[in-house]
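Project channel, design review

CF: Before we commit to the Grallaria varia constructs, I'd like one complete example in the thread so the newer folks can see what an input/output pair looks like. Taking Methylmalonyl-CoA epimerase, mitochondrial.
RD: sounds good, go ahead.
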Amino acid sequence: GLLPRLQISAPAGRILSSSMSLSQNIPSCLWKLGRLNHVAIAVPDLGQAQSLYRDVLGAQVSEAVALPEHGVYTVFVELGNTKLELLHPLGEKSPILSFLQKNKTGGMHHICIEVDDIKAAMTELKKKQIRILSEEPKIGAHGKPVIFLHPKDCLGVLVELEQA
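CF: and here is what came back for Methylmalonyl-CoA epimerase, mitochondrial:
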C-alpha cells in the first residue's frame, strides 16, 4: 500500500543532513524573540468590544486607558497564555482612525512579540533592511519600550516588538 512507499521515499541520512545544514545557516543573533505578548484588534466601538469579551465570552477585561502619544485607547483582554489588545482611535491623527476608515468593522491590527534586547534588535534589523517605523523606541501600553516593523518588510503584518 501507500504507507510502505512513504517510509522508504526519503533516506534518514538525507533528512538529518538537510536539517543540520539548515540550522548551520541560521546566523546567531545578539537578541532573541520571546513569547507572543498580544494580538491587537482595532475596534470601532470599544464598549461593545469590551462587552463581547467580558459578558459573552467570560474573559477578564481591563478598563480603557488613553495613550495620547500613540493616538489610541487600549483595553487588554487576558487569555491565560497571551492577551488581546483592543484599540480604539484617540484624536484626529490616530493610526487606528485611518485603519478603521479602510476597515469599517475593525480587524486585526498588529501582533506584539517580546524581545530580550530591543536596541540590539533595532540595530540588527536595520542591517537586514527591515524598516522600523520610529527612530527610537516609544513607551508602549505596558510601560516598556516598543518599536513597530514595517508590514511590507514582514509579509504584510505590522509587527510590534516589546522589550521583555
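RD: helpful, thanks. Residues 12-24 form the longest helix (13 residues).
CF: DSSP finds five helices and nine strands in the chain.
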